[in-house]
Specification:
Layout: E1 3-10, H1 15-27, E2 31-36, E3 41-46, H2 50-61, E4 65-69, H3 70-73, H4 85-105, H5 112-115, H6 117-144, H7 150-171, H8 182-214, E5 220-227, E6 230-237, E7 246-250, E8 258-269, H9 271-274, E9 280-282, E10 287-288, E11 293-305, H10 311-324, H11 332-358, H12 363-376, H13 380-399, E12 402-404, H14 407-414, E13 418-421, E14 428-439, H15 444-455, H16 461-469, E15 480-486, E16 490-495, E17 500-504, E18 520-524, E19 527-538, H17 542-551, E20 555-559, H18 564-574, E21 578-580, H19 585-598, E22 601-604, H20 611-616, E23 619-623, H21 628-633, E24 636-638, H22 646-680, H23 686-705
Helix pairs in contact: 1-6, 4-6, 4-8, 6-7, 6-8, 7-8, 7-12, 8-10, 8-13, 11-12, 11-22, 12-22, 13-22, 13-23, 14-22, 22-23
Length: 713
């Protein structure tokens, strides 16, 4: 297996920058190259250590700097998020928009100053400068890497329109208006900056998931050490914790690292690991995981894994790798531009040579015809094609209670063939209720009264749920003389007459019951009188949702950390045929990866433990009341946590938007295909060219606006 090397690179601010680095490294023979401009990370396989130096050299030649290397540090580099790239792009866009508006208005308002060529020149200069400085670097290095990207087209188009207008001003002063295309160049730069802004905002929201995950790991822990024959408790940084150290945790503490309980009992919240909100009882000999919370109790723990090797650290690493390896959204415009750009340049050169040396036209006219080809082929409609459809699609989704992070998510969602559902909080409400009471000797009503009486003395989450559900038995509650709660085990209560009632987990009865099959065991005088099973409520409409997904050609899968029997019950009730139970985060990621090899797959989850899978999936979907990490790791957030039918609207809107983008790009390229030959042969009057270009823009914008009114089932 090849060694993985991670480089932290500064200077990347867009997807095209990443594309240039990727192509350069691939040309040098590096395999499995993934470049994430959002985190500034470059990951690749390398066999020979000396090849890493070659990779660093290649990246420096492209104009970027390598600030960290995992092979030199002998450890994983820290997350490095871009600081102010979004703010810089936003400011550039606002400045460009300010100067583009008067240029654009001259096409509709007959105000003398707006038509003055020198006024238009002054307005276009700042926009042209922004365009060249912002897109020029990526364009230049993409050419050096061998495959020009859309930035090349943007720079050539905007610059050509500017040069064409300058030449028209001075070569044809008597008919300057026919040669002014300042607004074309300015509009190209402004619209594409808007697209970059949307992309960066989406990325900024996604990458904060790693910081949220890191915040789950406490910075310090209490260590028990022996000093002069006495035990002393001190606070140390988690980086200093070593294997076999003894740590102390009390009620409310977040466990620092993974280990085994030496002594003490308690109840832990392991939802960050398993996704299940039911607390777990812990006692001596049980494993306890870093990042989980000790809800009640006090335990001494022997360290088995340090902070770098803990389960939480692995979750963070899984999210990081998933973000780096997320499939690139290959826009149709970028794919075609690899051929389109050199072809247009070739046509432009041929036009000049034929006009000047075959048709014997004046050099000025030949030059203008040549530049006209570039002006006509400006990607103005191509610049509008994706952003307008994305804005309309995201706006329509927002009105339906669906938050979508960026246009690439819409495209990926349109291609989804499988949706993997987590159970708790996603298909179920997360509220607990009594599923079944099995009474051994007394009536169910008596059992409920006893159960309410005992649980009313506990602050345990399950106890609170039972208190709420059985509150009608408050009037018949038993008055106890003494009540004692053993953390992580159960409650013992004695009546005035001397009867002992006990309610607790399997830990309380394991000495005489062989299997852990129920949530609560109820005893009277140390004899079992009832067992109680607790369950989550299934959200309304889930079965209908699964059925409709099937009609759309989308398969549904249940993937949970809960027990097998419960998962199978939920799946049967929902109509889901494929079920995976008792899975930890890394196991969920592996199962998801297997599905993604077959087809684009979405992950629908709400817990911290779902974060790696949400990041790794083609599309991560979550709900508004999910954990912060799940929301940050997801690309789609459903605001109504109880109405899962909006998932169907999400799919419909995504498919309509993706279809609209393809239609827009078709019209944009169709216009160029038809217009370029006319311009090359000198048959296209500049005014007609401007009108036809404007018409292509109108078609694209109008088609996108249809998304606001089209019927969504």
């Amino acid at each position: 297996m090849d060694e993985k090397v991670l480089l932290n690179v500064e200077g990347m601010d867009c997807a095209n920058c990443a594309l240039s680095i990727t192509r350069s490294l691939q040309k040098s023979g590096f395999k499995e190259v993934t470049v994430n401009f959002a985190t500034g990370e470059v990951l690749f396989d390398v066999i020979e250590p000396v090849k890493v130096d070659e990779a660093v050299s290649n990246i420096k030649k492209l104009g970027y700097s390598v600030v960290k290397r995992s092979d030199q540090l002998n450890q994983q580099t820290e997350l490095s998020l871009p600081g102010n790239s979004y703010t810089v792009t936003r400011n550039k866009f606002l400045i460009a928009l300010l100067f583009t508006i008067p240029l654009f208005l001259h096409m509709f308002i007959h105000l003398n100053i707006l038509h003055d060529p020198y006024f238009q020149l002054i307005c276009s200069l700042p926009v042209l400068f922004i365009g060249i400085t912002h897109f020029g670097k990526s364009a230049y290095f993409s050419i050096r890497s061998g495959v020009p990207n859309m930035d090349v087209l943007i720079v050539i188009g905007s610059t050509a329109a500017f040069v064409y207008s300058i030449l028209g001003m001075f070569l044809y002063p008597e008919s300057t208006a026919n040669y002014l295309f300042f607004e074309t160049g300015a509009t190209i730069v402004t619209l594409v900056l808007l697209g970059n802004l949307i992309e960066q905002k989406s990325v900024k929201q996604t990458t904060t998931a790693l910081k949220d995950l890191a915040s789950l790991q406490p910075s310090k822990a209490k260590i028990i050490i022996s000093r002069n024959g006495n035990e002393v408790i001190e606070e140390i940084a988690i980086e200093e914790i070593q294997k076999n150290d003894i740590l102390l945790f009390n009620t409310g503490d977040r466990i620092a690292v993974d280990g085994e309980i030496e002594s003490g009992t308690g109840t832990t919240d392991e939802s960050m690991l398993t996704g299940e909100s039911l607390p777990v009882s812990k006692t001596a000999g049980d494993k306890i995981t870093g990042g989980t919370v000790l809800i009640e109790g006090s335990v001494r723990m022997k360290v088995e894994r340090t902070s770098k090797d803990s389960a939480l650290a692995k979750i963070i690493e899984l999210v990081k790798i998933a973000q780096n390896n997320r499939p690139d959204i290959q826009k149709l415009g970028d794919k075609i531009s690899a051929i389109f750009v050199p072809v247009v340049l070739l046509i432009s050169i041929v036009t000049f040579l034929v006009a000047a040396f075959v048709a014997n036209l004046p050099l000025s006219k030949a030059l203008l015809n040549s530049i006209a080809v570039l002006v006509i082929s400006c990607p103005c409609a191509m610049g509008l094609a994706t952003p307008t459809a994305v804005i309309a699609g995201i706006g329509r989704a927002a009105k339906n209670g669906i938050l979508i992070k960026g246009g690439s998510t819409l495209e990926q969602m349109a291609k989804i063939k499988t949706i993997i559902f987590d159970k708790t909080g996603t298909l179920t409400t997360g509220k607990f209720r009594i599923k079944k009471i099995t009474a051994e000797s007394q009536s169910e009503s008596e059992i409920k009264s006893i159960l309410y009486s005992i649980e009313s003395y506990s602050s345990h989450p399950i106890a609170k749920s039972i208190q709420s559900e059985l509150k009608e038995f408050a009037s018949t509650a038993i008055k106890f003389k003494t009540v004692q709660e053993d953390k992580g085990i159960g409650i013992n209560a004695t009546t005035e007459s001397g009867d002992l009632y006990s309610a607790g987990s399997y830990m309380m009865v394991k000495h005489f019951i062989s299997k852990d099959e129920h949530n609560i065991y109820l005893l009277k005088n140390n004899k079992l009188i009832a067992t109680i099973d607790i369950e989550d409520e299934i959200k309304p409409g889930v079965r209908s949702l699964i059925s409709k997904l099937r009609t759309l050609g989308i398969r549904s899968v249940l993937l949970s950390g809960d027990k097998k029997i419960r998962c199978e019950e939920i799946a049967l009730e929902c109509g889901i045929e494929e079920v995976y139970s008792e899975k930890l985060p890394h196991e969920k990621s592996k199962i998801l990866a297997d599905y993604m090899k077959v087809s684009p797959t979405a992950m629908f989850g709400d817990g911290i433990n779902d974060a790696p899978a949400l990041s790794m999936a083609s599309v991560g979907i979550s709900i508004s009341n999910a954990s912060d990490v799940a929301i940050q790791s997801s690309q789609i957030i459903l605001l109504d946590k109880n109405d899962l039918s909006i998932l169907l609207k999400t799919i419909t809107i995504s498919r309509l938007t993706y279809s609209t983008i393809k239609q827009n790009l078709f019209w944009a390229f169709f216009y160029n295909t038809v217009a370029i030959p006319f311009a090359a042969f000198g048959f296209l009057n500049p005014m007609i060219g401007a009108l036809s270009m404007a018409f292509s823009d109108v078609i694209v914008i109008g088609n996108s606006l249809r998304l606001k009114t089209r019927k969504i089932s």
